[in-house]
Amino acid sequence: MNRFASILPGRLRIRAPELRGIGIQQALQALLRELPATVALRANAAARSLLVVYDPQVMPPQAMQQQVADILDRVLGHPAQQTPTPPRKGAPVPAVGLAGSRQMQLNRAAKIGMLSSLSASLALAAAGAKHWHIGTGMAFVACLGAHLVTHRRRLLR
User: pTM of the prediction?
Assistant: First the structure.
């Protein structure tokens, strides 16, 4: 699993499930502070991420990335896959946390259904078509249910 979520000159964002623990984050931060280029560290245990802000004039980005990867391997105990090249500008960002493409497609359809049924329901309510308004409102609730089922794990933490 690749641990670098974002790589920019002067910034490295690390994401790993192990970063949820405060002890691991503190140990990692102590080692990262020893690097001469480190300017600031921002940890977010809930997001399992750590942002490393560094001075690219002191250490080139590739060297800093390698140093951080070595520290991660020492602290987390298992090597990550090779580090990626930074994404192209405008490249699609992969969805994180959804089980697979079928679930993403269901969620996308649910969101489109919610948007269209809500707008139709409001238009029908304004036009006075009560029965059609109720039907489109029920369609909205069904799409909302599908959307909530998709995100149930995040909602019930």
Answer: 0.49
Give the C-alpha distances (Å, rounded to integers) separating 20 from 26, 50, 72, 96: 11, 10, 14, 16
Q: How far apart are CA 17 and CA 84, in angstroms?
A: 19
Is the C-alpha dihedral spanning 116, 121, 127, 132 positive or negative? Answer: positive
The whole-angstrom separation of Cα 92 and Cα 51 is 22
Residue with tokens 């990550």: 80
Q: Report, in angstroms and rounded to the nearest whole number, the Rg of the chain calculated over CA atoms.
A: 22
Q: Give, for 37, the enclosing helix (H) or strand (E).
A: none
Residue 153 and residue 147: Cα distance in Å, rounded?
Answer: 12
Residue identified by tokens 């960002």 is 93
Please return the burial class of 48, using the count of CB atoms within 10 Å of its CB with bins 0-12, 13-18 and 19+: middle
Closest by CA to 43, choosing from 27, 59, 55, is 27
pLDDT for the residue numbered 19: 83
Tens of pLDDT, residues 59-91 = 999 999 999 999 988 888 765 544 445 555 655
CATH hierarchy code of domain 4-76: 3.30.70.100
Per-residue model confidence as pLDDT tens digits over 15-28: 988 888 788 888 88
